[in-house]
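---------- Forwarded message ----------

FYI, see the Pimeloyl-ACP methyl ester carboxylesterase record below. Original note from H. follows.
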Amino acid sequence: MPSRPSSLLRAFALGLTVSVLLTGCFWNAERRLEEDVVDELTDAEFYDVPDDTPAGQPGEIVRTKPILSAPLGSLAWRIIYHTTDLAGEDVLASAVLAIPDLPAPDDGYPVVSWGHPTTGAARDCAPSLLFDPFLMMTGIHEFLLAGHAVVATDYPGMAVPGDSSYLIGVTEGNSMLDAVRAARNLDPSIGADVTLWGHSQGGQAALFAAQQAAAGYSPDLTITSVATAAPAADLSQLMTDDLEYMEGVTIASYAFPSYEAAYASRYSKDEIRSVLTDAGASAVDELASLCLLTQGDQLHSLARPLIGSFVSSDPSTTEPWKTMLAENNAGGSPIDVPIFIGQGLADTTVDPTSTESFVESLCAAGESVDYRTYEGISHLLAADASMPHVLSWLRQVESGEAPSTC
């Protein structure tokens, strides 16, 4: 029987392994930092798409660009592609795609389409414009290691010129689906099986994407599941609850340009702004132009004095906002695939009771929902806290045994 290695030998082997791993991590971090700089030097011109760009089919690619700073073990691209808005009109959107640098399975890489949380409503607030375009893609490393491609839309109106689509569920959802189509048009090794995954604003987008797919928007894709963390599912309650907080003023200000654009054929700008106080009306355009991640101090200095005095009446009970918000509440049509929802119980942006009510409505409609709550977890950390459960839940979904807490 062979003798076991000595403690000294085991310690040496462990030390060598750690040294190799750390060296690899540092090398990868240094490589990505240098390549991020190179990427950033040429990004601006990539997103400047001419106004006269011809219309195209949903998912049709306008242009692509390799990303040098792809996560270790992956290949990545920036993509500009066609999608459709609330009115069914052709619009452009941008996305980031990453695929494992490994041979694809016979039926292609399964895809995770990621919907990011609120970063702002202006063009410059797009996550793909950050120094690290993968920074906000929660779970990207885990998904790549599990053999999934990951595509992350910016949503229309961000990065690429166009009207804001902030909290316009159909437009955001379509852009998540069409980002997958664009990814498949770019790389034929990407399969048709799709998991929709989103946090906060992205949770609303993912749920609407699932509804749009179930209604026949993307027959070429097979939506296998939808996972969300602290989803902005009930905008009517979100707007009511949050206007007494700085987050609510920020969210509401971001919604004005997108709702004015999306509902221009039904309501005038004056009708939509009639809910604002004089102080709110004076500040809303500047607030809506600021990015949450890069201009937070300026945003907060403007929003803080407006807490409790941004609007003159409750938008959820005042027309036309009552109708517009109701139309952008998730769950209004079937989803018909397994749903995961994670919710932090210390969340002051998306109230846990609102999410619980939404889950109850999904269960009552016959949907399969796995609902998880996390003690002490804030809104910001909801997606990270959910990831371990999302990964195990996806394995169960793929095996045909999707759990449900309904």
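H. also flagged this: The chain is about 40% helix and 15% strand.
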